[in-house]
Amino acid sequence: MKRISQFVKNRRKEANLTQEEFAQRAGVALTVLRKIEQGKTNLNMDKVNLVLSMFGHELAAVSSKELRDKKDES
After folding, report:
1. Angle at 19 between CA 49 and CA 13, to 5 degrees
2. In this structure, are residues 36 and 10 in contact, taking their beta carbons and an 8 Å threshold?
3. 33-58 per-position pLDDT tens digit
4. Number of structural domains in the chain
5. The whole model's pTM is what?
6. Containing domain of residue 38, as a range?
7. CA pair distance 45, 33, nearest whole angstrom
8. Helix (H, G, I), strand (E, B) or coil at 74
9. Would you state the pLDDT for residue 33?
10. Mean per-residue pLDDT of the chain
């Protein structure tokens, strides 16, 4: 979650938006954006995806098999 929090915070700042402005544009509550930027782990994935969609990204569930297969490819 730390990588996501830094990504969101850095990209928001690059866009010269306050947390409040960005949350409003993303369609999430200010508290949700603050929790994301603080790296909280108990977040609603749909809300995180609303924020990430502002940058053309999305989180998706990955099975342990997919992770093993990806590791084996490396």
Report:
1. 90
2. no
3. 999 999 998 888 899 999 999 999 99
4. 1
5. 0.73
6. 2-73
7. 12
8. coil
9. 96
10. 90
Given a contact cutoff of 8 angstroms between Cβ atoms, the answer to whether 17 and 6 are in contact is: no
Alpha-helix runs per DSSP H in the chain:
2-14, 19-26, 30-37, 45-53, 64-73
Q: Which residue has the tokens 């609603």?
A: 44
Tell whether the model's pLDDT for residue 67 goes beyond 80.
no
Whose CA is closest to 45, among 1, 7, 12?
1
CATH number for 11: 1.10.260.40
Alpha carbons 14 and 70: distance in angstroms, whole number: 32
In this predicted structure, the answer to whether residue 8 has a pLDDT above a threshold of 90 is yes
Question: Distance (Å, rounded) from C-alpha 39 to C-alpha 1?
Answer: 5
The answer to whether 11 touches 26, Cβ cutoff 8 Å, is: no
The one-letter amino acid code at 28 reads V
